[in-house]
Write a structure and sequence with these properties.
The complex is a heterodimer of chains A (about 200) and B (about 180). By secondary structure, chain A is α+β, with helices and mostly antiparallel strands. In chain A, about 40% of the residues lie in helices and about 15% in strands. A five-stranded mixed beta sheet of chain A has the order 3-4-2-1-5, with helices on one face. By secondary structure, chain B is α+β, with helices and mostly antiparallel strands. Chain B is built from seven helices and ten strands. In chain B, a hairpin with a 3-residue loop joins strand 2 and strand 3. The longest helix of chain B has 14 residues. The radius of gyration of chain B is 16 Å and the shape is globular. Classes of the chains: A alpha+beta (about 200), B alpha+beta (about 180). Chains A and B meet through helix 4 of A and helix 3 and helix 5 of B. The structure holds zinc ion. Zinc ion binds next to loops of chain A.
C-alpha cells in the first residue's frame, strides 16, 4: 500500500517483534530449559521445528549458553530442572486422577407436588465454566438457570424444571465448542432428592 | 505481584473507564514508556475502548480486545505485560541478570544487585544511568527476550556501588500467574 503520495508521510507504527513461543510451556523457546516440561518441550521442538531445535540444543549451543555460570552451578540447574519436571508430572498425574474420579451429580429436586428443579453438581472439576453452563442450559430449555451455592456452600448449576435426563443427554453428545464438553458420562449420575425439611429454595 | 493470582477469585469486575480517564492513561503510557504515539495507536486504537479489570489488592489490569496490555498497582506506574514487551522490546530500558539468577527470578524473587554487577549481568553505562523508580525490562545472560519487568529500587549507579540487597523489584516475570492469562 502506498499512502505517501497522498499525505505528507504520516509516521508509521513500529512493527511488533514476532517471538517464537513454545507450544508446550508457552515460554519463548530459549527459556524452555527453565520450565517444568523440558523433555516434552524438546520433543515438540525437534519434531515441529528441527532447525530451531538444532540452534538451541546442539552440542555447541549447549556449550556456549552456559556463559559465565560455573560448571557446578550448571549441573545444579540441570538437576533442579529434572526435579521440577518430575514434580510437575506427578502433580499433573494426580490432578488427572482426581479429575477422572470426581463425580457429577445431576439432582432432580422436588419443589412441591408437580414442580422440580435440576441441580448439577461437580462440573467445575472438569473445567466447565459454571456461569456459561447455566446460561447455555437456560437457553436450551427456555427456562431459568443460575449458579447457586448449595447448603454445603459449593457452587451448583440450578435449572428450573425437571431436565435431568436431557442434561445427561447433552453431556453425552457435547461436541467441541459446547460448554459442557469434556465431562465423561460415566462420571455422571442422576439422583432424586425428595422434598424434606430444610430443603430451601434457590 | 502475581503470585497465586487466580482470575476466578481475584478479579472483582471489568469496566470501561470514562473517556477522559482513558485519555490520561494514554498520556501516562506515552510519558512512562519510550513508545511512539502511532505505535501505541496500533496497539490500542483510540476508537477501541480500554477495559479496566479490577483485581485484588488494588491491582488493575487494562485490556483491549480481552488482551492484557498493561497493569498498575494503586495509581503507580503502568507496567506493560511481558508479552507486550516481547513485541516492542525497546519501550523500556534494559538491565540484565546473570544466568545463575534466572531460576530465582522465575521462582518469584526480586533481583539482588550482584546479579546485575557480575560478569554475566548488565547495567547501562554511567552516561545512561537510570534513577530510582525506573521501569526496566529485565533481560538474562545469553537470552534474546526479556524474562521479567521490574522497577529499580536503587539508581543503576548505586547498584554498582552498593552491590548488595534488592536492586530491582520484579512486577511480572515469565511463567507467573499474569503470564498464564492470555485473555481476560
Ligand atoms: Zn517449552
Amino acid at each position: 500500500m502506498s499512502s505517501s503520495d497522498q499525505q505528507p508521510q504520516d509516521p508509521q507504527p513500529v512493527q511488533p517483534v514476532q517471538v517464537f513461543y513454545c507450544q508446550v510451556c508457552t515460554f519463548p523457546v530459549e527459556y524452555c530449559e527453565f520450565g517444568s516440561s523440558l523433555t516434552r518441550c524438546k520433543e515438540w521442538l525437534a519434531e515441529a521445528h528441527p532447525t530451531v531445535y538444532e540452534k538451541f540444543y546442539s552440542d555447541e549451543a549447549l556449550q556456549s549458553k552456559i556463559g559465565t555460570l560455573s560448571l557446578e552451578a550448571q549441573a545444579k540447574l540441570e538437576k533442579d530442572t529434572a526435579k521440577k519436571e518430575a514434580k510437575a508430572e506427578a502433580k499433573a498425574d494426580a490432578a488427572l486422577k482426581k479429575k477422572m474420579a470426581s463425580q457429577v451429580l445431576i439432582k432432580r429436586i422436588e419443589r412441591n407436588k408437580r414442580k422440580h428443579v435440576t441441580a448439577i453438581h461437580g462440573l467445575e472439576a472438569f473445567d466447565i465454566d459454571l456461569k456459561k453452563a447455566a446460561k447455555f442450559l437456560a437457553q436450551k430449555f427456555a427456562t431459568g438457570a443460575s449458579v447457586t451455592k448449595n447448603a454445603q456452600g459449593q457452587d451448583e448449576v440450578v435449572v428450573q424444571g425437571d431436565v435431568a435426563d436431557e442434561v445427561l443427554e447433552i453431556i453425552e453428545k457435547a461436541g467441541s465448542g459446547n460448554v459442557l464438553k469434556g465431562v465423561p458420562v460415566a462420571n455422571c449420575e442422576i439422583v432424586e432428592e425428595k422434598k424434606k425439611k430444610g430443603a430451601e429454595g434457590a | 505481584m502475581f503470585k497465586k493470582f487466580q482470575p476466578s477469585s481475584d478479579i472483582s469486575g471489568q469496566t470501561p473507564p470514562k473517556s477522559s480517564v482513558q485519555r490520561s492513561i494514554r498520556a501516562a503510557v506515552l510519558s512512562q514508556w519510550k513508545i511512539e504515539p502511532e505505535t501505541l495507536e496500533a496497539i490500542w486504537p483510540k476508537k477501541e475502548g480500554l477495559i479496566h479489570v479490577k483485581c485484588r489488592e488494588h491491582i488493575s489490569i487494562y485490556t483491549v480486545h480481552n488482551e492484557p496490555l498493561f497493569f498498575q498497582h494503586f495509581d503507580g506506574p503502568l507496567y506493560p505485560t511481558l508479552r507486550l514487551l516481547h513485541k516492542y522490546p525497546y519501550i523500556l530500558p534494559k538491565v540484565g541478570v546473570d544466568r545463575g539468577a534466572i531460576r530465582f527470578l522465575l521462582a518469584g524473587a526480586h533481583m539482588m544487585c550482584p546479579g546485575f554487577t557480575s560478569k554475566g549481568g548488565y547495567l547501562p553505562p554511567a552516561d545512561a544511568a537510570l534513577p530510582v523508580g525506573a521501569l526496566v525490562a529485565v533481560h538474562a545472560e545469553g537470552k534474546e527476550h526479556a524474562v521479567a519487568i521490574g522497577i529499580t529500587k536503587l539508581s543503576t549507579e548505586e547498584i554498582k556501588k552498593v552491590n548488595k540487597g534488592v536492586g530491582v523489584e520484579i512486577a511480572t516475570h515469565l511463567g507467573d500467574d499474569l503470564w498464564a492469562i492470555q485473555s481476560l
